Structure formats: C-alpha cells, structure tokens
Amino acid sequence: MEVSIKMKLRIVGSGGMFQIPNPFCRCPICEEARLKRGRYERLGPSIYIEDIQMLIDTPEDIGVACDRQGVSEIKYLSISHKDPDHTRGMRIVEPLGYDCIANKGTPIQFIALPEVVDDINAWNGDGLYYYQDILHCISINRTDYIKIGNIQIHLVNNKTQRGNMTFYVISDKDKKVIYACCDVKPFVHNKLYFDADILIVGLVSDDGVLKGGNLLIDAPFKDDMFTIDEIMIIKHKYRIKQIIVTHIDEYWGKSYADYQKIEKKFDNISFAYDGMEIIL
Fold it and tell me: 180 in helix, strand or coil?
C-alpha cells in the first residue's frame, strides 16, 4: 500500500509593513497584542516549506520570527520582490552560510526570478552579489522553476504597474499551494492556478473598514487591495478549495480575535497568524 506523504508549510510571519505591536503605536490593536502576545503579535511576511527547508522572504525581523517558530535550518531561500518589508532581513544569509572566524562561506541556494534578482540588487547596493561573490554564503539561481525532491515550485511573475512580483506555485503530486503574498492586484491570469488546494494571499480587506474607522475606498492604496468578494471570484474562477489571508497590516485595525469572528462568516476563508501550520 502506498503511504501518503503530506506537504507541510508554516507561516513564519503573517504581518505586513509594520509589526504588531508597533512600538510607536498605542492603538487598541497594538495594546492588546502587548498584553496577550502569542497569536495577537505579527512579524513581517514570510513562509517556510518544511519538506525542503526553504524560506520565502526576509523581512527585517526574520531572525526573531525564525527563532520563535523553531526554524533552525534553511537550505533554500527565495525573495518574492524588492520591497523593504520582504528584503531588509536578507542578512540572515550571513549566520546561515558564513563563518566569520574561519572566513569561509558555505553557500545556500538563493532562488529567484532573474528580474527580481536585478531589482533586489538595484535597491540594495548589489547585496546579493556581495553575498555570492565576496562572502560566498549564497549561490544565486535565476530561474522560474525548480524541483527539490518531490516538491515542484513554479515562480510566476505577477508583473503590475508596481513592478515585478513573484507568486509561488508549490506542488507535490496532486497537492498544490499558491503563495501570493504581496502586490496581488491585478491577479494576472495563469493556468497554473487552477485547482489549487490553497491560495495564501496578501492584501485582502475583510469589510473595507480600516484603523480608526477609516474606509478603504478613501485610502491611497485602495486599488492595491482585494475585497473578500473579489477574492471569492478568484477562488471560484480557479476552483481553489481554500483561501488563507496573510500580510495583515496594523493599519487594518483588527486583532486576532476579530479575524476569528470574521472567519465564521465565510466558507473556507481563514486569516493567517504567526506559526500557523498548513498541512496537505
């Protein structure tokens, strides 16, 4: 009898541009997070594919996030796009792949779209080349596809007016997860998205009401975020079984408990939290 092998992912960080609690904010959401901690806290957006020990995205607090979630080994690393809340923690490759006493690098594989590699270097002073060519702690693989063991990963450029953005289609035989963390709108069509088990997607407003009672329709970023209704259209179009919302920002004005209540109103839509395990 064939044994079914499960695919396991972990949300290392479910937050957005600013951590929750924001140290400079005294709003009810941040104060509640200071008091209750745990799932009420959110660090920057990142995900870990446990089957192959691969981390996607490196926000500033990624070292703290990995320590909290017990991520102690990373063999593969990818960054989705150039924005600071996804790149500013890339120094994690130094303790991972560089022995400063021996002055010796043991490179881990850095996997990214060619255009994203160029973007990251342009915004970070050729930092990736420094890590590859000087410290020798990464080896850059410019690609849109990789297979590691049984896991296949397609890197899809959801290029919009904001620039290059990687969506990851992660599959193992008949199991499929899409990780689309940021710059999701418009959701550029790709046939790889059909019949996914889970879409992990960022920047989704649950009710259009933001922090302090402000409305999404009046916000400067209103065209960058999906509503729940719009996400449901994508869910049905691509026959996706489940939606998990991540990249949850402090300025959305809702706590972990608020999202638990919202989940009850919808079919197969949930909201991520730091440490959330996804097992297929």
Answer: strand
Question: Quick one: tokens of 3?
Answer: 């044994």
Q: How far is Cα 79 from Cα 86, in angstroms, rounded to an integer?
A: 7
Q: What is the DSSP letter of 257?
A: H
CB 16 within 8 A of CB 198: no
Judge if pTM exceeds 0.90: yes
DSSP 31-49: HHHHHH-GGG-B---EEEE
Whole-angstrom distance, CA of residue 61 vs CA of residue 68: 11
Q: Looking up tokens 């420094």, which residue turns up? A: 130
Residues 119-149 pLDDT 10s: 999 988 888 999 999 999 999 999 999 999 9
Hey, what are 124's tokens?
A: 């970070």
pLDDT, tens digit (0-9, with 9 covering 90-100), for 168-223: 999 999 999 999 999 999 999 999 999 999 999 998 887 778 888 888 888 888 78
65/123 Cα distance (integer angstroms): 24
Cα–Cα dist 110/135, whole Å: 14
Which of 122, 115, 45 is CA-nearest to residue 86? 45
The answer to whether 177 touches 7, Cβ cutoff 8 Å, is yes
Q: How far apart are CA 78 and CA 262, in angstroms?
A: 32
| Separation of alpha carbons 19 and 5, rounded Å | 35
Residue 183 · residue 162 · CB < 8 Å: yes
80 contacts 103 by C-beta, under 8 angstroms: no
H helix or E strand, kind and range, residue 141: strand 138-142
Q: Which amino acid is at 62?
A: I
What is the DSSP code (8-state) at residue 263?
A: H
Separation of alpha carbons 190 and 19, rounded Å? 32
